[in-house]
Amino acid sequence: MGKRGVNYYKTLEIEPTATSEEIRQAYRRLVKLYHPDLNQAVGDKNRIVEINLAYETLSDSHSRRVYDRQHFPYGQRGDRPKSPQSPTRSAKNPLDPDRHWQQWLSRVYHPVNLSLIEILDSIEAEIDDLSADPFDDQLLENFQLYLENCRSLLEEAQQHFRSLPNPGPIASIAAHLYHCLNQVSDGLEEFSWFPYNYDEHYLHTGLELFRIARGLRQEAQDALQEVYADA
């Protein structure tokens, strides 16, 4: 699960005996504290990636058990050194650090996922604002600024996606993210045409493409849980 030497409980500032609710509360508190969009003074994107990785592992009962078994095999951290895994088990375990799984998860999956959430979760509110008066110059300008910000987020996500090769065991997760990014790109292209001719067809098409993108992002999350379950 986690990289050797990384303690996800310390990352979330909780005890190994923390309940699911305590994990959830700690995650929310830390996101509010370190997310750059919520607290520019101390916002830290790298810290947010670590927090998300820790939460995704510890909030799922199965992945938490696997993590605890790998890091605290004798019940108490530091009781005895862990026995090295046999070559056979290491070769079959898709979460083996030697397969660069955690590096890909930290540097690709989580940054891409955060950008996708920011883009996909904000579109309805932007469309609602624009629908108040689609011909209002200020509303159109605000909508175009929103699209520009989304394109920047998308470009950043695409750069993260290309930054590392995709490990074989998580090919399905990478495939879902790849197609999701393409749908978002196509959706933004549709939205960008609306200010030029006020044809609502572009808005409807863009929303449909974003709906498909949401489904693909969810499929990536489901595929991730399947990998954890097979660990």
From TrEMBL:
Alphabetical list of InterPro entries matching this protein: DnaJ_C4, DnaJ_domain, J_dom_sf
TM region(s), chain numbering: none
Region (Disordered) residue spans: 71-97
Record PANTHER family: DNAJ HOMOLOG SUBFAMILY C MEMBER 4, PTHR44825
Pfam families: DnaJ (PF00226)
Domain of life: Bacteria
Organism expressing this protein natively: Roseofilum reptotaenium AO1-A
CDD domains the record matches: DnaJ
Domain J: 7-71
Sequence ranges of Basic and acidic residues compositional bias: 71-82
Name of the molecule in the record: J domain-containing protein
